[in-house]
Design goal:
Elements lengths: L4 H6 L14 H12 L10 E6 L2 H11 L3 H4 L2 E8 L1 H10 L10 H24 L3 E5 L1 H4 L2 H7 L6 E10 L13 H4 L10 H18 L9 H12 L4 H7 L7
Helix pairs in contact: 2-6
């Protein structure tokens, strides 16, 4: 089932339950080509992707990350920041490699490239009626174990995983921040920001109270701050350095 661009982008939602059904090969090829055509910094293509089809490997990943989506999705895509390829190319051509990945901007470039590639996959999959769920916890839960599982060389780290499959659910759309909290005209806008955020917080709580499936009184501000508090326990800088990203400046 092909969807319009408008349907694909404006009706997007995270799908966490999938039918045990294969994805047609022509749809997978479309997703791969959309990923490959992703815009990147300098056209350096500082990303790569591991497509996981092996069920035992997906189940092992689910056990590590604690996300059931990996078990039931037809494909898991691991989006990687990748400076290993340019290191190999420089060595093959006898050129000096300055080690751009050891700068903050290099880290950002690889992360942005991999993130753009993932969004290409989300849009491509959605346009074919498939469901997706980005899983950032795959990056933080146990970087060394995940890196070893996929044989990641130096200069490569996992940015985000993406589960893709035939949807078995269609959850309610989550409310997003209103336009005047997202779009500013010419300068960053702070007028009544606290009031607007509090109103959005109330809308988010109302969504949780009335959504189909599990309901709660969860608010947006408290929920996000809770995620941040949990994230304060991740030692990603050490994990990145072990992957060859020795950020110096």
């Amino acid at each position: 089932m092909n969807k319009t661009v408008e349907e694909t982008l404006l009706q997007r939602r995270s799908i966490r339950r999938y039918e045990r059904e294969a994805i047609p090969e022509e749809d997978l090829e479309f997703i791969r080509e959309a990923i490959r055509n992703t815009p990147t910094s300098y056209n350096g293509q500082q990303f790569s992707v591991i497509e996981v089809s092996d069920q035992l490997l997906k189940e092992k990943l689910a056990d590590i990350v604690g996300q059931k989506q990996f078990k039931t999705c037809a494909r898991a895509f691991m989006f990687l920041s990748d400076f290993h390829k340019i290191a190999v190319a420089a060595d093959a051509k006898g050129l000096d490699n300055p080690g751009f990945e050891n700068t903050a901007d290099g880290l950002i470039v690889g992360t942005v490239d991999a993130s753009l590639a993932m969004m290409s996959a989300i849009v491509a999959a959605g346009s074919r009626g498939l469901g997706c769920c980005p899983i950032g916890y795959a990056r933080t839960v146990n970087p060394e174990v995940v890196s070893e599982l996929f044989g990641l060389p130096q200069g490569v780290y996992l940015v985000c995983a993406l589960a893709v499959g035939v949807p078995r659910e269609m959850p309610d759309l989550k409310p997003k921040q209103p336009r005047d909290l997202v779009f500013f005209n010419n300068r960053y806008g702070v007028d009544d920001m606290a009031g607007k955020l509090m109103e959005y917080d109330r809308d988010f709580t109302e969504y949780h109270r009335n959504r189909s499936g599990n309901t709660s009184d969860a608010d947006w501000i408290g929920e996000i701050l809770g995620y941040y508090r949990e994230g304060m326990n991740y030692n990603m800088l050490d994990a990145l350095r072990k992957r060859g990203y020795g950020v110096e400046k």
